[in-house]
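F.,

This is the one I mentioned.
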């Protein structure tokens, strides 16, 4: 991380570029540097960053000549920095040197606009997938989206919606049959929905292969890349024979 942030001199270590690098501080000179995962910095990098924030000077790894950079620093972390400071794993002086205006982004479980956020993510995903129209959320899906805690926050929600769009095909409405199992089970524990996400994907692939082959089982097996006997076992398992 030190070489990424501060850069390094030519040949500073094994595998280093013969030309060296200026590092992120040098590249951000005159602008803004965003530091993500701040709490993951080692003690050495924390100390070097503190020195830079004090007088705007720094050393590249393996370099004896100081450099300067005029940089505005914005930092982010998903850790509780005050607790880490009390535990001694994050420098108190660096914490207070960085602490200016603080913005807390609440987790999805504390937000009341999760359904609206989901609709916005669906529109973005449809653009990426080349779909002309974004599907609607069924009432059950909207309830699940707002009722689930989303421990993975926006990344988890976006991935779940991406999978739902792929499995749902061109359906105008996203229904619960394409909802990840852990979300459905947490929000509708008594519904008794059968079949997991992979089972539903396999059943859909079977239907598409048989339809594309005009009911020719040998051709359908070839399209799926399985033996014909395996195809029949798959059909039986899904109650399609």
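My design for it:
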């Amino acid at each position: 991380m030190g070489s990424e942030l501060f850069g390094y001199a030519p040949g500073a270590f094994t595998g280093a570029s013969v030309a060296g690098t200026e590092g992120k501080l040098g590249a951000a000179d005159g602008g803004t540097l965003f530091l993500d995962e701040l709490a993951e910095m080692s003690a050495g990098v924390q100390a070097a960053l503190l020195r830079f924030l004090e007088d705007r000077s720094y050393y590249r790894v393996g370099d004896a000549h100081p450099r300067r950079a005029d940089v505005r620093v914005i930092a982010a972390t998903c850790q509780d920095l005050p607790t880490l400071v009390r535990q001694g794993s994050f420098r108190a002086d660096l914490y207070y040197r960085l602490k200016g205006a603080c913005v807390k982004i609440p987790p999805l479980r504390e937000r009341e606009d999760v359904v609206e956020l989901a609709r916005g993510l669906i529109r973005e995903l449809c653009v990426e997938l080349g779909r002309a129209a974004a599907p609607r959320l069924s009432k059950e899906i909207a309830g699940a989206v707002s009722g689930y805690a989303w421990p993975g926050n926006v990344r988890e929600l976006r991935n779940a919606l991406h999978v739902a769009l792929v499995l749902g095909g061109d359906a105008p409405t996203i229904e619960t049959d394409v909802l990840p199992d852990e979300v459905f089970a947490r929000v509708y524990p008594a519904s008794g929905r059968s079949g997991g996400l992979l089972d539903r994907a396999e059943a859909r692939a079977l239907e598409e292969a048989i339809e594309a082959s005009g009911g020719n089982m040998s051709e359908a097996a070839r399209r799926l890349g399985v033996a014909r006997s395996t195809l029949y076992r798959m059909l039986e398992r899904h109650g399609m024979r």
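The chain has a mean pLDDT of 87.

Talk soon.
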